[in-house]
Design brief:
With 68 residues, the protein is an alpha+beta fold. It has one domain. It is built from two helices and two strands, in the order αββα.
């Protein structure tokens, strides 16, 4: 099992509108499709969360979190 450092998690974490387009050179690391909770230990801030179908429609269909 490979272990990664907290620096890796911080540098390679993408969530919300920062999710890179699939297939792009930036599409790697940790991708939080439905948002991310904050993690003070890693210095990661919370992003909007997608929990309901209405939030899904807003995030992916109207706001364009992912671009195909």
């Amino acid at each position: 099992m490979q272990s990664y450092s907290p620096e890796f998690a911080t540098a390679e974490s993408a969530a919300g509108q920062d999710i890179p387009a699939p297939g792009s050179s930036r599409f790697h690391g940790i991708v939080h499709l439905h948002g991310r909770l904050s993690d003070p230990q890693l210095g990661l801030s919370q992003t909007e969360l997608v929990l309901t179908s209405a939030q899904y429609g807003e995030a992916y269909l109207r706001a364009g979190w992912t671009r195909l």
